[in-house]
Amino acid sequence: MKFVKLLLLPVLALGLSGCAGYRLGSTLDKSIQTVSLKIVNKTDEPSIEVAVMKALRAELQMDGRLKVRPQDEADAVLSVTLTSYYLSPLAYDHTRGTLVREYRIELIGTAVLSDADTKEVILETPQVKGEAEFPYTADMTTAKLGALPGAASDLARKVVSATVTSW
Prior knowledge:
Helices cover about 35% and strands about 35% of the residues. The protein is an alpha/beta fold. The chain has a domain at about 25-85 and about 110-130 and about 150-165: Rossmann fold. Strand 1, helix 2 and strand 2 form a beta-alpha-beta unit. The longest helix is centred in the last third of the chain and has 25 residues, at about 140-165.
């Protein structure tokens, strides 16, 4: 029994030392507790920044590590610039020619977290993409509007994850 304990100790020490370089938690300095949000839409699709702002606010509230505040009360500013909006066909109805049955909506942008006072960049994510799939309907505008919150939520989840989480 004593031999098993002596053998188990080095194995346990070796196993735990493999995790020494990893850290679970926030990448942010402890001084950053609040953030203000800024969304810029540089795409040709109007008003998508509204859905992204709503999704980003909800994701930050759900995560809980950063509180959303007005810019004059925040420690940092999280700026998301929407650079591309794509609509791509995913599946076709071959019984009706080349009629599209399902589409993918993609929102692509950048995210920058900067100090609210000094404007110094704390963290930059050069490309982040949110996407969602939706079925074709006779009213394509309504179908796109229905899928936009899903793509915005996916984008927001990735922005928040890149901003506050590290291994």
